[in-house]
Request: fold
Amino acid sequence: MLDQDDVLYSQHFASLLAEIHGQPQIDVVYSGCKVVACEKIDQRVNKVIEVMNRPWQPGRLLIGNTIPNHALLFRASVFHSHQFDEDFEIYEDWEFLSRLSLSNLTFVHVDEISCEYRIFSDTEIQSYIQVHEDKGYLDHAQKVITSILKNLELSHFDKIIYLVNHLEKQQQLLTSQLSEQTQQRQALAQQLEQSHSLEQLLADTCAAVGIEAAGRQGIAQLIGRTLPQQTLFSIILPVYNTEAAILRQTLLSVRNQAYTGWELCLVDDASDREETRQVLQAVQNDPVLAERLHYLRRDTQGGIVAASNDAIKMATAPYITFLDHDDNLHHEALLSLALKLQQQDYTLLYTDSRMIDHSGQPMHTYQKADWSPETLLHINYINHLTVVKREILKDGLRADFNGAQDWPPF
Reply:
């Protein structure tokens, strides 16, 4: 049965027929339905105000209809014994379905939304009940209930008992879930309060020792200060005609390291780009970078291997880490490596890495395999960020591997 403003989705009949076909014990099958509010003038769909998709419950139709006509599919035999009552112009479908449910016909619910019940109005619609109230339909409900009462027999009370029992079980379940959720909420509130207290304690501690950064960044700096204050890492940074904005980001990522046990070995490979030279000049005047800086400007361009080897010669720390002139170090990069080296005297350490665009947005994350010498024979899966003992690189990098200079030592 279809009204002029009803909508059936393409799979509607296929879904219902698939459920009822070959199962003669099923008399009526129905699916879920969206109740959609539409503007009366241009018939534009505004919003879904309700979804009618309830599983079958014996007795539920005795207190109200939750199944639109066009969501139903009947066997033809149903209409041999039951018809619509012509005395009902309003809620005739509810009265009809209530009689079917009292006749012990078998209803089956297909848990799928396959149709729409569209409501057109000049005013904003908030609910399905509101529509019936505005149209004055609710006054007709008493007539349907009177008809249902006339048809009730003692055996029908089993359906009502089932419905009441089901509702009581649902209430008990919801009460139990509410109690559990309340306990969880109280526990979370307590954890949140403890977290705020801890956060305040850490903030006060950071401020007391001169750390201005807040949150995780401040905590990372605080942890960094608990480590031995030695120069543990020599950062090898060859530069050639790098775009100023990119080079500033690279240098800033070094400057902002939570762990301060580093020195910067920076070699300018004879850059002739003015903006690059200006940034490199500013580095030598930066109060944080300058005190940890070993700087060399080459007279002639020698390539990345020559520049890196010059930087390695200036290194004094026990570990060397390579940094390209367009790389960004995570704030906690050196801290993570320093903490690892507190546990064991490693020869080489490497981390996962991430490729980012010019705006800093992640493009790809490289989650690297565990140490695998065999894999290194055919691909440099390590790449950056890597730290290696300086003694391993005492002879420098091989000039004939320009562009892949860090692979052979690995």
Remarks:
- The first helix runs from residue 12 to 20.
- The chain has two domains: 6-152, 228-401.
- The radius of gyration is 38 Å.
